[in-house]
Design goal:
The protein has 178 residues and is of the alpha/beta class. The protein is 51% helix and 18% strand. The protein has seven helices and six strands, in the order H-E-H-H-E-E-E-E-E-H-H-H-H. Strands 1, 2, 3, 4, 5 and 6 form a six-stranded mixed β-sheet that branches. Helix 1 packs antiparallel against helix 6, helix 2 crosses helix 3 and helix 4 packs across helix 6. The longest helix has 16 residues.
């Protein structure tokens, strides 16, 4: 992955919307909340964001297991990527493969013209949010800044080859020499 993509990926974790102990009585309410948070972030109409997320969910559950779901959509109307991490006060049924109710929702909305970036980022994000240390922080921490930092650090560890991390860390400006 090029250095710009790695940095862009980590920026998404650092700037993502976080909502803790949200009230959503069922899956549709959780998706509606995610649509509301995402639409506001990317200046999309709420109805468009909700229709995109609900349409994708209708194709099959986006639950990953371990109490985590990752509803996502790549609509044409989306001008830029956005993420929203929502912890639910009470877990909801999400048709998860492990049959566990979901209490952590990582929602993504991404512009269709950047679908390649979406595929790479969503793969990384699913691994990051399913990490046991991340899940514990999301479920027990009341500090969004701490959660963002942990997501960023875990994403960096999973996406950067060791040699690149060493090269980037060894130069004062944070960029490898050319």
């Amino acid at each position: 992955m090029p250095l710009e993509s790695i940095l862009d990926t980590h920026e998404h974790f650092l700037t993502m919307d976080i909502s803790l102990s949200a009230i959503a009585p069922h899956k549709d309410a959780a998706i509606a909340l995610a649509a509301d948070r995402l639409a506001e972030t990317v200046d999309m109409a709420y109805g468009d964001a909700r229709a995109a997320l609900s349409g994708r969910e209708a194709l099959g559950s986006t639950a990953l297991g371990k109490g985590v779901a990752m509803p996502h959509a790549v609509p044409w109307e989306c001008p830029r990527p956005a993420l929203s991490l929502i912890s639910l006060a009470t877990p909801v049924e999400f048709d998860a493969p492990d049959h566990l109710r979901v209490d952590v929702v990582l929602a993504l909305i991404w512009p269709r013209h950047r679908v390649g970036d979406f595929v790479r980022f969503s793969s990384l994000a699913s691994r990051v949010v399913s990490d046991p240390a991340v899940l514990q922080a999301v479920r027990t921490s009341g500090a969004p800044g701490l959660i963002r930092s942990l997501l960023h650090a875990r994403g960096s560890a999973l996406s950067c080859p060791t040699s690149l991390r060493v090269r980037v860390a060894s130069h004062g400006n944070g960029l490898p020499r050319t």
